Amino acid sequence: MTLNQLKALHAVVEHGGFRAASDTLYKSQSAISIAIKKLEEDLGVTLFLRDQYRPQLTAEGEVLYKKARSILSHAEELSNLAEHLSGGEEPELNVAMSAIVPVDAPLSLFNAVMEQCPATRLSLLVETLNGTMERLNDNDADIAIAEVFEQQNDYVYADLTQIQLVSVISARSKLAARAATLVEKDMEGTTQIIVRDSSRHSEKKSAGIVEGTHHWVVSDFTTKKRIIASGMGWGRMPLHTVKTEIENGELLLLGSEEFSPLIVNIKAVRKKEQPLGPVAAGLWEQLQKINWQ
User: Fold this and answer.
1) Which domain does 28 fall in, by range?
2) 278: domain CATH number?
């Protein structure tokens, strides 16, 4: 029994047939068939029912396939770890960061990484909503700095800070005089400014949309703030991005309980089975020491 045989088994099951497996593994269909046949001989069991339109696992095949997946996962983890231990500083470090995170806090850390590790190129990918974690899932990022509402077993998390999302309206708005007492029903027919989810193929996410409002969708919080400040709409903003405008009276908080601040947990996230390179590992540790206030 070899890893190549187990990879062939995995590909046939995951991709629904011998031809699809051959395309995935860049091997001929006959080579896939031979690998499966040899694996069956080595194990002494029949893995597939071959009288079906698509190869279907036998009862024994189901049990062995689950074990094969585990073996392949551990083999990949071992290979990644060996590559990590044998290599030097990684040539590129990619960080995906949610647009609601205050970028000023980690800037000095990012600068220190570039100065201490000049051979490593740092790429900062700013995303919104599901776009941040999608970058990590697609291996476009080594570390994500993202809002986390529910933790999953496939990732490692480190607490960083909390962000307040507050609902604001312009002092120029016709509703400004009632800002402290407005409720959701009062906002029917108004224009709510929404930042678009930047994910490319994940399920699009939206938060805090009030029923009965018109929607103006923008791509970033800077544009959103300018539109709200102009009096053409209202919406939720990270408090740190509108604090000055609230203090000088340009923007007003919607003060009713229905528009209470939303507290969002910000965490550093990485894949559990993907070891970090030395530069990324150092960044991971230092992110947790930042004063985010």
Assistant:
1) 3-86
2) 3.40.190.10
